[in-house]
Amino acid sequence: MSRSRLLSLALLACTLHAAHPVRARKAMVVAQEPHATDAGVAVLQSGGNAIDAAVAVGFALAVTHPTAGNLGGGGFLLLRKSTGETTFLDFRERAPAKATRNMYLDDKGNLTRDSLEGWRAAGVPGTVHGLALAHQKYGSKPWAELLAPAIKLAKGFPVTYSVSKSLQNSELLAKFPESRRIFQRNGRFYEPDELLIQPELGRTLERIAKHGPRDFYEGETAKKFAAEMAANGGLITLEDLKNYRTAERKPLTGAYRGYDIITAPPPSSGGLGILHIMGILESSGYTAHGAGSAAAIHYVAEAMRRYYADRAEYLADPDFVKVPVSGLLNKQYIAARKATIDPARASSSDSIRQGKPPANESTETTHFSIIDAQGNSVALTYTLNGSYGNGVTVPGLGFLLNNEMDDFSAKPGEPNMFGLVQGEANAIQPGKRPLSSMTPTIILKDGKLFMVVGAPGGSRIITGVLQVILNVIDFGMNAQDAVDAPRFHHQWQPDKLSLERGFSPDTIELLKSRGHTVDSISSVANVEAIVVQKDGWLSGGTDPRSHGKAAGY
Ligand code: GLY
User: Which of 317, 438, 439 to probe ligand 1 with, by most ligand atoms within 8 A of CB?
Assistant: First the structure.
């Protein structure tokens, strides 16, 4: 039987067992929490565009998805307008002016836990600024109307089983009195279906609705926030808040097998990561082995290993460090990296160092994907970093703070909370943005919108988003199957291939026999994807690893 016949049989096997994506004719939202999805769809149905919906979803998640939805964090928004115009809003947190390179080292030079927990772990939040700039430049509905769903949800929404358990089990929230009071009711934990009421957060949202982002960066909220920071030994000052700016950047673009990829530039390491790895895969023939085969997993994992070695060395905030973007995407460089992959044998990460790309010619996060009826699309990923961020809820203001400072190399060469080893380029400097893995991505086919995708998941965002794209483009899966399929992850250091449940024991044995150290992992990111079908319908895949919802009309 010919190879192409074998491959089409393999694809047929996939489609025979296909899960059904959610389908919509005109517009769709896929987000990690159902109330937030519903808020976005209502905005779209009432004539709002994708940016309007993104603002409503972003603020709603800040109420209903406290592990990651936020006012006190930051993120990235990738927009493609139906006209083809694209832009990238970087509202990533910035290191406060008082931050110093060694601020998380004790007097023996060892890492403390201060980058993870408590007031000193927070970077200057960008979410309110980023959403407001997006609205000001690209929105169409009144600002206050877009905050109304979040304000209503803050008056009380029924917690699900999983939110109830997550709040109850959080040892981090229990450490900080205001967080314990609001989210754990001082030990009288919320049962499923009980209303979680957040009056302080509701009042903060009302002020932002009335006065705009000035309230958060200069007004009453800013002043209270800065005063609490100072009283609790944190570093963020009123000046830091006043100085916060969203950076509007040019998205990174590339091509893979006839598709145009529009994705996140630095300070994300994600867009560069998926393009670099796709460059290695494109002519490798890895797809011939079939989705989920040991040979395909091995090859993709080896490509991941090499990219993460480069990531550790070269990636950082481009406003502070010259990132060799075009070098890492240079065809000869990619070919040279590819030539070091043995299709039959795992490399050892100790033997893989960062390459020498040519100089430039020149825990918990959340994601949602939106397409509106005009064909505008938004991929937005934002985060507090760890689950519930640094654990601190600002007294009187009701919002949790990020621990994004842990995404810097607090001690270059030592792993952070994701086990990522990072280098000098990503060391702490005042005003700098920590390197991110967030990978909001939009894909075109023949110049037309084809896919909107992204994910939370720390260092595994890049590999998670990559695999869902490969499942769609290389293996012909529908949006839901592509998201459901088990995933794997390799990040160079630590030198292990991490597998979700769902790979067969034989496959795992074959990977071990190739020399991989294999371990199991609960999830590789939580991907939220929309694919535009050939007939023009939208199909949404929400990740079953989480509790999201795809909906549209
Ligand atoms: N905080 C996770 C990331 O930005 O990569």
Answer: 438
| pLDDT of 306 over the 90 cut | yes
Measuring CA to CA, how many Å separate 472 from each of 232, 257, 483? 48, 12, 9
The predicted model scores a pTM of 0.95
CB distance 251 to 263 below 8 Å: yes
Contact criterion met (CB below 8 Å) for 246 and 433: no
How confident is the model over 514-550, as pLDDT tens digits?
Answer: 999 999 999 999 999 999 999 999 999 999 999 999 9
Q: What is the number of other CB atoms lying within 10 angstroms of the CB of residue 302? A: 27
Marked catalytic residue, from 237, 263, 365, 393: 365
CA of 406 to the centre of ligand 1 (A): 9
Q: In what order do the strands lie in the sheet with 252-256?
A: 22-24, 538-541, 528-532, 448-454, 441-445, 259-263, 252-256
Domains of the chain: 1-35+66-100+245-553 (3.60.20.40)
Q: Is 458 in the pocket of ligand 1 (CB under 6 A)?
A: yes
286 in Cβ contact with 296 (< 8 Å):
yes
**360 pLDDT more than 90:** no
Locate the ligand 1 atom nearest the alpha carbon of residue 461 and give its number: 5
The pLDDT assigned to 417 comes to 78
SS3 of residue 10 by DSSP:
helix
CA distance 247 to 486: 35
Are β-strands 518-520 and 497-499 bridged in parallel, bridged antiparallel, or unpaired? parallel
Rounded to an integer, the average pLDDT of 84-91 is: 98
DSSP state of 431: T
**Using H for helix, E for strand and C for coil, what is the string for 337-403?**
HHHCCECCECCCHHHCCCCCCCCCCCCEEEEEEEECCCCCEEEEEEEEECCCCCCCECCCCCCEECC
Does residue 9 register a pLDDT over 60? no
Q: Does residue 5 surpass a pLDDT of 90?
A: no
Q: What 3 state SS string does 512-546 have?
A: HHCCCCEEECCCCCCCEEEEECCCCCEEEECCCCC
Taking the C-alpha atoms of residue 552 and residue 76, their distance in angstroms, rounded to an integer, is 23
Distance 418 CA to ligand 1 centre (A): 9
Band (363; pLDDT cuts 50, 70, 90): low
Burial of 83 (0-12, 13-18, 19+ CB in 10 A): exposed
Alpha helices in 1-49 (DSSP H): 3-16, 34-45
